[in-house]
């Protein structure tokens, strides 16, 4: 019984190494059909469009943040002025 299990282990090991030696999966480099070239052009155009949209979103985000900072600066100035009035009123 022990010999049988040992022989099965050896056979399974041989099969697993045979599978690894079969070859590679996936696309072969350098073999592009004309439809794939069109797909590449479409992909590049989608990428460009996505980049344009990303830059537009970034511009809007920076505008929003700049407005937020300006509003906060105005609030700080108003609070400082109020503080000065309160300090002078206490004297």
Automatic annotation (TrEMBL):
Residues 41-85 form the BZIP domain. Its main location: nucleus. Residues 1-50 are annotated as: Disordered. Residues 33-50 have a biased composition (Basic and acidic residues). InterPro entries: bZIP (IPR004827), bZIP_sf (IPR046347), CREBL2/REPTOR-BP (IPR039250). Pfam families: bZIP_2. Belongs to the bZIP family. ATF subfamily. PANTHER family: CAMP-RESPONSIVE ELEMENT-BINDING PROTEIN-LIKE 2. This is cAMP-responsive element-binding protein-like 2 isoform X2. It comes from Drosophila arizonae.
């Amino acid at each position: 019984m022990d010999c049988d299990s040992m022989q099965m282990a050896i056979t399974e090991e041989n099969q697993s190494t045979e599978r690894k030696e079969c070859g590679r999966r996936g696309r072969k480099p350098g073999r592009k059909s004309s439809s794939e070239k069109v797909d590449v052009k479409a992909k590049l155009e989608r990428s460009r469009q996505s980049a344009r949209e990303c830059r537009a979103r970034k511009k809007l985000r920076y505008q929003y943040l700049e407005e937020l900072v300006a509003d906060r600066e105005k609030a700080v100035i108003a609070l400082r002025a109020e503080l000065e009035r309160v300090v002078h009123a206490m004297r």
